[in-house]
Amino acid sequence: AQTVTQSQPEMSVQEAETVTLSCTYDTSESDYYLFWYKQPPSRQMILVIRQEAYKQQNATENRFSVNFQKAAKSFSLKISDSQLGDAAMYFCAYSPPSGGGADGLTFGKGTHLIIQP
Amino acid sequence: GAVVSQHPSRVICKSGTSVKIECRSLDFQATTMFWYRQFPKQSLMLMATSNEGSKATYEQGVEKDKFLINHASLTLSTLTVTSAHPEDSSFYICSARNLREPGGTEAFFGQGTRLTVV
Lengths: 117, 118
Hints:
The structure holds 2 protein chains of 2 kinds. Chain A is an all-beta fold. Chain A is built from no helices and 12 strands.
């Protein structure tokens, strides 16, 4: 079974600074998808960024980027120029390859990100 | 992005009664939807996979008779918590993946339902 580990229950960063959230995972698959989801106090899950395992290039979305190390099974999220609106729970998630969209996600335990003004 | 709507957002019920939660994909068809449960300050745990026109697939440890899932159409899945007890109180979230998207990679989530059993 796949597992996703987030070793940082809570992180704090000053506004406008950069913070990196860690995630490691375990799988025997060679092809899969990785995600970072944000869950603000409203509890609505919002996709931040995703990475296909077969792509070597790290995904980026504006201020958000990942460091995907496939051999190490590591998938960290870097948030640059942190903003107050970034404060939320961040979940790392894994999905096996799913052409039919038939697989649920395996989530890590989450990291609570605090932005200090 | 695609929209998944979940209703109700909050429900309080008496112990022993049943509660139905609806999950709709508003602008795409979803042959598969997923139901998660989230305890306070914890992660999302996959409960079951809802398959249109067939039986749901439950994760290990999830009681099929307690959590009834029906996926009668390509846009609607329902989760019924039967004979609810206080320990069933939790936050329930549904999600669906858009088949039209290559690989169907992104999962879209409903707003969640906070169930309180008193």
